[in-house]
Request: fold
Amino acid sequence: MSKSVVIIGGGIIGLCSALYARRNGMEVTVVDREPKGHHGCSFGNAGMVVPSHFIPLAAPGMVGMGIKMLFNPEGPFAIKPSLNKRLLRWGWLFMRAANEAHVKASGIPLRDLHLLSRRLYEELADESGDAFGLHQRGLLMLCKSQKTLNEEAHVAGQANDLGLHAKVVDAKALAELDPTITMDVAGAIHFEDDCHLTPGSLLDWLRHSLEAEGVVFRDETEIVDFAMDGPWIRSVETRTEKTRADQFVLATGAWSGELAERLRLKIPMQAGKGYSVTLNNPPQLPGICSILTEARVAITPMGSSLRIGGTMELTGNDLSINRKRLGGIFKSVPQYFPEFKTSDFEGQEVWSGLRPCSPDGLPYLGRSARVQNLVVATGHSMMGVSLAPATGKLVSQLLLDQETTLNLDAFNPNRFDLND
Reply:
């Protein structure tokens, strides 16, 4: 049995992988390019655990919708035109995956991965004394128009067919469901299996727990190369040292595709930039997390604060802030919550992060076919926090050559390497 593992990447996926690997008796080292406390894309995440998200990003209609959004400078989607080969290939693969067959095949695997995470979050919340504020009140898909509500009702039907719990709620029932906030909407879909938490508190608790359990962290350490012995990694090389291990985990988020190329692996990835703002004194505080459906903006209560986030910008590994698109987020909130004003967001600190997006909207999770002692765990897009504990648990099983709790065929990290 392999005893030592180097986990490349210290974000939420890397930390959860370290947690379960360590608790299964492995010697664990986490190597991350960022300083301690940075936490990557997950820190400013909306903090939602979403079994409701069983439809992958690559779905019918998304290409046409994305093209329309491109012409709105304040819209929720943007792409930087480029002849970059990685982007062109990613776009071609996305279009190829955006079909009904792909959506149908993805529903059960995504559902099961989310539900496993939800169960594990309940265990971690009990263990930590609810250190990260897990609230199990569901998610509201708020719809301004009746047309959108009717469309979302179809998704609710699909959710129920998958054994999830979703129901259509009209405006009157919605006000009774969450009387803490004034809403101006036609209604909502209430996905009752969803929940939310505070990502920063989760990441802090994980890091503290891992350090206490003997996990070694090498922060501000960038991997520049791999020492190979045939199809095996023998060590990772930084600018100052080599670190040997029996096994390795690639969990570097939006940078995973580039790092994989150094191993001659094809793991198509694009960074989907998103923004969030956290209001410490919001005009009102909802009791249930929500998504403003038409605006594609996420709203999450976190303690006494309220986090608002959105956009998907395919502009490379660039964390700069597009003020027009940020303004689009701010303008959308009062349309659904009339007690809010755009001025509520003036002077607020803006967070930006890069989500690791695979072209078919599914994470990469499994063993590499070309590198015998490498497990890949990346590409979770906007669902990194939601899927992290399940991913970490499954990574530990892969590392120990155990039978995995779930079938991982849909998430095969070799699907674009060997079959494309």
User: Anything to note?
Assistant: The chain has ten helices and 20 strands.
